[in-house]
Structure formats: structure tokens, C-alpha cells
Amino acid sequence: MRTSARNTFRCTVSKVVEGPVNAEVLMDLADGQHLSAIITDRSVKDLGLVPGTEVFALIKSTFVILAAEDGLGKTSARNRLCGTVKTRDDGAVSSEIVLDLGGGTTVAAVVTKESAESLGLTVGDRACALIKASHIILAVA
Amino acid sequence: MRTSARNTFRCTVSKVVEGPVNAEVLMDLADGQHLSAIITDRSVKDLGLVPGTEVFALIKSTFVILAAEDGLGKTSARNRLCGTVKTRDDGAVSSEIVLDLGGGTTVAAVVTKESAESLGLTVGDRACALIKASHIILAVA
Amino acid sequence: MRTSARNTFRCTVSKVVEGPVNAEVLMDLADGQHLSAIITDRSVKDLGLVPGTEVFALIKSTFVILAAEDGLGKTSARNRLCGTVKTRDDGAVSSEIVLDLGGGTTVAAVVTKESAESLGLTVGDRACALIKASHIILAVA
Question: Are C94 and B60 in contact (CB < 8 Å)?
């Protein structure tokens, strides 16, 4: 499966919390990190998601908020992936920044160029990617 | 009211599934396709949504994930609109791709240029737009 | 036109920065606060946006990330609206939290219940809403 989502993480479902409309799916990444996604109950059933199911978490780079790692307080974003700036490409309005999370894993973010400048992010800097659980699409092979 | 949302679909509500906070609104498009949106219960009440209500589904082009139609497995994205690439405009960081869904309907997506290149999307190719239900805003006239 | 977007802010465009695909639209709110939105160039033209244009900024509550005001560092989110928790409604999976920004303005966020609990947000607490510029839809009357 090939998609335009710049971020595709292979995960294993660890827990599914079902509500009347939405469900929260908790997942383990290979390197001990975790992800949380909110999808509809209907999708949980359609995809047959249970603990142990292998899934791909798709995250569009425009859904990622970057933050300086230092002084980053608590937020409601259920997903926080911290790493080192690997590349930064500036356009006229937007910048694409890729964080190296270690273990061969990266996360790409598209932010406004003004934000990239305001955060002063350059290659080698530490930064964190904040991702709301409701912005993750899950896929099964 | 005109909006910056590049995608506005005229739909008819077919079903509303209410939870304590969120509701899922199922809709029919004119051409037999369907859309699903997650909005708050409060909005369902404010807009007076019941089966039969005519609504507009607003979808920002940056919320759309594109996927090659071939080999596209199951995903949690409740909305999948497949068509043919009609136009592709590249910027320095982003590309805008418009799919022709047939029947005069189109869907616009903004993805990173790297994704557009990686998918090799050119005019005439088949592709699908994946849209999470929680990314759709509903409007009534 | 009424929409399901729980957050609708009346603004005046102060500046438009155009790129080849996307444009950043800077806006003033009535109370001296500012918003920034990323929309396509095409939408800027379709809506005729220039400094002085009155617009409505539509923001879905699921796109808002909440953060404790204390110790909140820099993020790439171009929009930060801080206020006091006015209401909190918990569902099985999601919680809706409304912040009172003062001057009769509020911002609603839907986060996972686990996040609401982890942040310990209760009525009267200070908190900030973080909103990515690319998650705002603009509308003109």
C-alpha cells in the first residue's frame, strides 16, 4: 500500500478502548515507543482490530506540530515523538522538517516557514513531534 | 457563504449515530457514493441534523491523503473517493492534486511534493483520496 | 450558513503571504489577538482575500490541542489562545473542553478523556489551545 502520508509507522495493537461512536487504539512501535489513535468503532470492526493485530499508522506531515524539546510541558496531544532534526527544506510559505527518532525511524512535519524560523530549528537540534490521536489513520495489509 | 475549503460536497443525511460527546453522521452523495463525518452531538443539535437534511461537507485539501488505487488495503479512514488525476501543480514543498471522481465531481488534495513524486502521480493516473470522518465539517444553508 | 465547526472566529485579514501553492493569511481578532491560516493560493483568489477583508475562521474542535499554560514552551503551532476552563464534558473515549478566552469568546476542544485526565483540567484552570495554521478554514459571508 502506497499513500501520500509521509509518515507510516508499523505498529502492533496493544489495547482497544471502545466508546459508543469512537474508539481509542493503543499501539506499540518496534522501538518501545507507543502511539494512540482515535478511529470510529465501525472502523475497529471493519479492520478486525484486537490486541496483537499488526497495523500501519498513517500520519500526514501537515498534522504534526513541532516543539522544542526543552521546556515542553504537558499537552493533550496523545503522541509525542522526540528526535533530532535530520533535514529542513524551506518553501515560500511552508517548511518540511524531518526528525530522526533513532533506530531508522523518522517523522516528517510540514509547518509554516515562520514557525520553523521562530523555533530556530536547524539540522542536529532536538525537537518533538506532537500528534493528536484523532489525526492518525490506521491501515491493515 | 464561500469558504477556503477546496472540497464542498452536497449531501443528504442518511443516519445519525449519537454518543455522549461525538456523533457520526452518514451521508449520501448524488452519485451513489457515501460520506461519514464525526461531529459533536452539540453540532448535530445546533444544525438540526436528521435523516433527509441537506448538508454541505467541507473538506480542506490538506486533510486528504492520496493513495495508489492498486494494492490499497483496508484503512480506518471512513471515506475513500477514487478517481483519475485531473491536474497536478507543484510548489517548492507542496503539490496540489485534483482527482476527477466522475459525474462532474472532483476532490482536491495538497500533499508534499515528495509524496506526489514518490507516488508518481501524473495526469490520467488512478488514485484514491482517504479522508478521516473527524476531518469533515458539515454546513447547512 | 451554519456549520458543525464548534469554533467560528470573526476576523479581519491583515496580511496575505503567497507562495506557489499555499498562502498564509494573517488575521486580527476583535480583542487584539491574532490568527494565522494556511490555505491554497486558489482559495485566496476565489475568496478575494486582501488586507481588510472580513472573514470567519472555522476550526473543528478535534483539531485543537490543549496544553497547561504553565511551562508551555515554544511550538510550531501558529495559533495559541489561552483562557480558563469553562466546561468539561466527558464521554467514554473523548472529552469536550471549552476555554473562556475573555470578551465573550470561547474555544472548544475535543481531546481524549485520558488526556483531559492526565492534564487534570477542571473548571477554572488556565489552559491554552494550540491550533495549526493549516487546520483553519476561512469563510466569507
Answer: no
Residue of C nearest to B136 (CA): C60
Q: Where are the domains of chain A?
A: 7-59+134-139, 61-131
Report the C-alpha gap between B29 and B66 in whole angstroms. 20
| pLDDT tens-digit series, residues C80-113 | 999 999 999 998 888 999 999 998 899 999 999 9
- Are A65 and C75 inside 8 Å of each other by CB? yes
pTM of the model: 0.89
Q: Alpha carbon of A31 to those of A12, A87, B32: distances in Å?
A: 11, 22, 44
In angstroms, rounded to a whole number, what is the distance separating the alpha carbons of residues C5 and C58? 6
Amino acid at B97: I
- Determine whether A127 is exposed, middle or buried from the number of CB atoms within 10 Å of its CB (0-12, 13-18, 19+): buried
Q: Taking the domain B61-130, which CATH number applies?
A: 2.40.50.100
Tens place of pLDDT per residue across chain A (141 aa): 789 999 999 999 999 999 888 899 999 998 888 999 999 999 999 999 999 999 999 999 999 999 988 877 889 999 999 999 999 999 888 899 999 999 889 999 999 999 999 999 999 999 999 999 999 999 998
- Enter the CATH code of domain A61-131: 2.40.50.100
The DSSP H or E segment spanning C42 is: helix C41-47
Q: Which of B26, B29, B34, B24 is nearest to B10 (CA)?
A: B29
Element (H, E) at C105: strand C105-112
Q: Which of B71, B91, B109 sits opposite A91 (nearest CB)?
A: B91
User: Rounded CA gap, B7 and B130, in Å?
Assistant: 13
Please give the CATH architecture assigned to the domain spanning B7-59+134-139: Beta Barrel (2.40)
